[in-house]
């Protein structure tokens, strides 16, 4: 069992940083050949540094805008101030109180005291909003309208994050349109009438009451999260080691390269497919990707199959070509996050990843088969490891 010092140490780390890293989901941590730098490119404060199998967030430099969270293809970055669950509960409340209007405001706008804090959800910056959250609100959350209220991005010192807001809205709108759903998103600098404050003094009193009533619950949640993380660290301590080479990282006996589920993608598709089938149009978002492999240059080494962090690209164990010198790889678009790791590790540059995906492929339960050459048995250490891993 973890000691009290372990738990307090994790609690301190949670308090120190507004954005936490889930290392096993970060392709730059999993594989030093990964070129993904989307979180660092999105960071307005240069708070993210990426090295060989490492990613670090400077909690003192981080301004908690949240742009990195939506930019990360694999949900490796998690905001803790506020937690996504708290934002979701607040959005559910405002949707109910405002007759189907979900109101989300940035901290700068909230500080102007023109809105009723019980009737909008607050985030430090609207860049924290993701395509997944917007799609869920529109397709599953009962929101007839989703209003993003900002304090004036043009005059905000972190206004450069506005591009991340636009990317989330555009991506969510494209997905909803492909399923025949209206994109009910709006941007405004004024609270709608249903969320406006009736009296500034009442607003301040409400804020104080909410602060005191939620403080206890927040402390309990933080302590529980800290304890769970500390226990997990203790249990996995024996499995953790430094992985210096690509081969070591992919073949780690500790399972460092074990695929994880593309949870955010699947939640979005669940919400959309509840409304029927898509029209098959091409959509470009930060959520999904599609993979193509040039069979004329591919050697069949299977490195890309081993590296795929979500299992979207894998060797088929059910379908085999008639030619014994060929093999099938399976590709499932619903699981692809367009992280690009499969292309990064390909020594022949045979793999191409695109964020533009046919929606018919997203909704297809059956994977797409990609015919590739097969290396002779014994010719590839990666093939041996793959067969042993999946036998």
Structural description of this entry:
There is one protein chain. This protein is an alpha/beta fold. It is 38% helix and 16% strand. The protein has 15 helices and 15 strands. The longest helix is centred in the middle third of the chain and has 37 residues, at 200-236. The radius of gyration is 23 Å and the shape is globular.
Which structural category do the helix and sheet elements fall into? Answer: alpha/beta
What is the count of helical runs? 15
Question: What are the segments in which pLDDT stays under 50 over at least 5 consecutive residues?
Answer: 1-14, 211-231, 233-246, 249-256
The percentage of residues in β strands lies in 15-25%
What would you call the shape?
globular
Q: Helices and strands, in N-to-C order? A: HEHHEEHEHEHEHEHEHHHEEHEEHEEHEH
Largest sheet composition: 4 strands, parallel
How many strand elements? 15
- Strand order, main sheet: write it out: 6-5-7-8
Terminal-residue CA separation: 35 Å
**Fraction of residues in helices?**
25-40%
- Mean pLDDT level: 82
* Integer-rounded radius of gyration: 23 Å
Task: List the defining traits of the structure above.
391 residues, 38% helix, 16% strand, 3-stranded antiparallel sheet, 15 helices, globular, alpha/beta, 15 strands
Draw up the topology in text.
Layout (H helix, E strand, L loop, with lengths): L3 H13 L2 E3 L5 H4 L7 H5 L5 E4 L2 E4 L9 H5 L5 E3 L4 H14 L3 E6 H4 L10 E3 L7 H9 L5 E5 L12 H17 L6 E4 L11 H37 L9 H5 L12 H11 L8 E3 L5 E4 L9 H5 L5 E3 L10 E6 L9 H5 L5 E4 L1 E3 H5 L4 E6 L7 H10 L1
Parallel strand pairs: 5-6, 5-7, 7-8
Antiparallel strand pairs: 1-4, 2-3, 9-14, 10-13, 11-12, 12-15
């Amino acid at each position: 069992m973890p000691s009290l010092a372990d738990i307090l140490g994790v609690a301190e780390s949670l308090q120190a940083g507004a954005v936490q890293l889930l290392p096993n989901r970060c392709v730059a941590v999993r594989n030093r050949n990964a070129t993904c730098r989307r979180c660092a490119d999105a960071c307005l404060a240069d708070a993210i540094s990426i090295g060989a199998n490492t990613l670090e967030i400077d909690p003192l430099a981080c301004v908690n805008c949240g742009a990195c969270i939506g930019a990360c293809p694999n949900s490796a970055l998690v905001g803790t101030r506020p937690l996504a669950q708290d934002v979701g509960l607040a959005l559910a409340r405002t949707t109910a109180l405002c007759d189907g209007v979900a109101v989300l405001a940035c901290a700068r706008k909230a500080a102007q005291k023109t809105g009723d804090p019980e009737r909008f959800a607050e985030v430090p910056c609207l860049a924290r909003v993701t395509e997944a959250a917007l799609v869920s609100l529109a397709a599953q959350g009962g929101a007839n309208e989703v209003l993003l209220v900002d304090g004036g991005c043009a005059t905000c010192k972190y206004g450069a994050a506005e591009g991340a807001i636009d990317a989330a809205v555009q991506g969510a709108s494209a997905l909803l349109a492909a399923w025949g759903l209206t994109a009910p998103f709006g941007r405004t600098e004024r609270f709608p009438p249903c969320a406006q404050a009736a009296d500034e003094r009442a607003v301040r009193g409400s804020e104080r009451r909410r602060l005191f009533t939620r403080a206890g619950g927040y402390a309990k949640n933080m302590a529980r999260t800290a304890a769970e993380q500390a226990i997990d660290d203790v249990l996995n301590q024996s499995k953790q080691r430094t992985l210096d080479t690509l081969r070591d990282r992919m073949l780690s006996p500790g399972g460092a390269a074990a695929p994880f589920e593309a949870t955010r993608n699947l939640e979005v598709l669940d919400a959309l497919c509840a409304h029927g089938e898509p029209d098959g149009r091409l959509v470009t978002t930060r959520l999904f990707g599609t993979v193509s492999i040039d069979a004329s240059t591919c050697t069949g080494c299977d490195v890309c199959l081993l590296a795929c962090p979500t299992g979207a690209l894998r060797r088929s164990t059910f379908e085999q070509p008639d030619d014994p010198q060929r093999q099938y790889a399976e590709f499932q678009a619903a699981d692809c996050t367009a992280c690009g790791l499969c292309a990064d590790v390909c020594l022949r540059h045979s793999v191409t990843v695109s964020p533009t995906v046919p929606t018919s492929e997203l909704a297809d339960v059956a994977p797409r088969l990609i015919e590739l050459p097969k290396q002779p048995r014994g010719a590839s250490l990666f093939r041996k490891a793959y067969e042993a891993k999946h036998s």
